[in-house]
Design brief:
The structure is a homodimer of 306-residue chains.
Chain A: E1 4-6, E2 11-16, H1 23-32, E3 41-46, H2 49-54, H3 69-73, H4 82-94, E4 105-111, E5 117-123, H5 127-139, E6 145-150, E7 166-173, H6 182-203, E8 211-222, E9 235-237, E10 254-258, E11 263-265, E12 272-274, E13 288-298, E14 301-303
Parallel strand pairs in A: 1-14, 2-3, 2-4, 4-7, 5-6, 6-8
Antiparallel strand pairs in A: 5-7, 8-13, 9-10, 10-11, 12-13
GO molecular function, one term (chains A, B): metal ion binding
Binding site for Zn(2+) (chains A, B): 19, 22, 110
Catalytic activity (chains A, B): an N-acetyl-L-cysteine-S-conjugate + H2O = an S-substituted L-cysteine + acetate; an N-acyl-aromatic L-alpha-amino acid + H2O = an aromatic L-alpha-amino acid + a carboxylate
């Protein structure tokens, strides 16, 4: 695979509090105000200040679904959802998405109630994000570091991290909404420092060797069992699946335990579960996500020589 | 210690969803609608239905602080908080508090984000609650079972469990708000069944022997370190204290880790921490509670013979 070169990655945006009750980002935002970084321009954004004040995921709609090209072009009126307005403000500040003016790298900070350690989420086509994942995986030892990749064209991306020229989201957990845990805060602080270090090395002319890495790709979403009449949930995630994100789920393994004590089992092929019993996904009717583990090759990268 | 006798305990109220985002109770409420119990009249209450619908702790004020005699006598107007209205409705249904008409036993179901296993919370003077704690502790083995006792006169109690002739709250965790975990649901189902079994045995004439048990009593509340200007939290609970509820805290043990990396240590005498990093206590300015472990003696009890 041939090496790829990019212009210097000197403008870095860190977005915090995109979901207002995910506290690692909220406290990182305050912490980052005090940090000094050499040779990289770091922009910190408190993405959803009204949701942070209310300690809610969002006020009107999920901000992290608002960054499609279509929504970013929608005219704002008095009745527009608050988050649509914020999406356009953020796009103006660190984008515009898809333009030369967009920041070189955008990192969006999230928490999950699932036992996922540190997850780097990015688009498969973004080899800068791939290299940053590889770097974080080699440096961070306190929690497992994994990658979840999307194959969606970046132009169709709806997440905030699609606004930068390169982008990734960091998910760390488990952590209840509304709570800050020191262990998770330390993981994100460490990740931030390693990303800065990587960007400085890249801009200084280092070549980062290509290779292969295992990443996860979503194949399906699994809803909770529900009562046919009331549509209410009739089972919780099974204790053998709870907290076992990324542990291979085999045909016949327990997945739900009904409130009446009945065990429901996985009927499909072998896949990896993640976002198991994530709080925010109840309203999205997702008990857990299933995905494949795939090995992806990526090229060497270095800064463009003048 | 002389034995004590009580009239039969045949009217049992189970209150669920007193905090609308503590999901074990919310799902127990639905589950209990389908249960049949012999010789005990079980009343199930969904305490705060509007907060349950909104998946919030409360709408206007914390319902579980509304059951003082003073608040239960306050005239309701159009501008009264929703929870004050609900408190009076619940008091009418399973009280009135302090009257002969009140249910014989009231059990209020709660979750905590802290690693507290199953905690039975009740008033020290209530020897029926003490015996139920002893029974649950002897029967439930999947999680630690502990008691937190209050010495406050029942007449001054503000919690929902003060409405019954006898009362207790069950706290189970850790569990994020808005999430139901099968392990915690099973603990509460088991506790419900053991309480019913105990009530049936008591009413059938069994004598429950007195004895001594260790329980915890709150001595102080500890707030997070805060910025003097902004009043914002400047530290998280230290990783060595996080998840270590009920592990003796000694002078000099780490209690907080500041976002700048500084460790703060416990300066007082040896005490037991609980409700460590409980989500709902951020707004109450409580990072954790400290208490003593004390051994309490309690009498034999049996049903009054006619």
């Amino acid at each position: 695979m041939e090496g790829v070169s990019f212009p210097p990655l000197s403008r870095f945006a860190v977005c915090c509090g995109t979901h207002g009750n995910e506290m690692t980002g909220v406290y990182m935002y305050r912490h980052l105000q005090k940090q000094k970084v050499e040779n990289i321009t770091v922009t910190t954004i408190l993405s959803n200040p009204r949701a942070v004040d209310a300690c809610k995921r969002y006020i009107d709609i999920d901000l992290n679904r608002c960054f499609t090209n279509a929504l970013l072009c929608t005219a704002i009126t008095d009745s527009s959802p608050y988050e649509l307005r914020r999406a356009q403000e953020i796009d103006a500040e660190v984008g515009p998405k898809g333009s030369d003016e967009a920041v070189d790298l955008l990192c969006d900070l999230h928490n999950t109630t699932s036992n996922m350690g540190l997850c780097v989420m990015y688009n498969s086509s973004d080899c800068v994000a791939m290299h940053i994942f590889k770097h974080l995986k080699s440096k961070i030892t306190s929690v497992p570091v994994r990658a979840i990749c999307s194959d969606e064209p970046i132009s169709e991306g709806y997440a905030l991290d699609s606004v930068g020229k390169h982008g990734l989201s960091l998910e760390v957990g488990p952590q209840p909404n509304g709570v800050v845990r020191a262990d998770n805060f330390n993981v994100i602080t460490e990740a931030f420092n390693h990303i800065i270090e990587w960007l400085q090395q890249f801009n200084s002319g280092a070549t980062f060797e290509g290779g292969v890495e295992d990443v996860y790709k979503m194949t399906e979403k699994v809803d909770y069992p529900r009562d046919l009449n009331t549509n209410e949930i009739t089972a919780a995630v099974h204790p053998q699946l709870q907290d076992n994100d990324f542990k291979l789920l085999r045909t016949g393994d327990p997945i739900f335990l009904s409130f009446d004590g009945e065990t429901l089992r996985h009927k499909g092929r072998e896949l990896y579960p993640f976002f198991v019993n994530e709080c925010a996904y109840y309203e999205k009717k997702v008990a857990f996500i299933l995905g494949e583990k795939v090995t992806v090759a990526f090229p060497s990268i270095s800064v463009t020589k003048n």
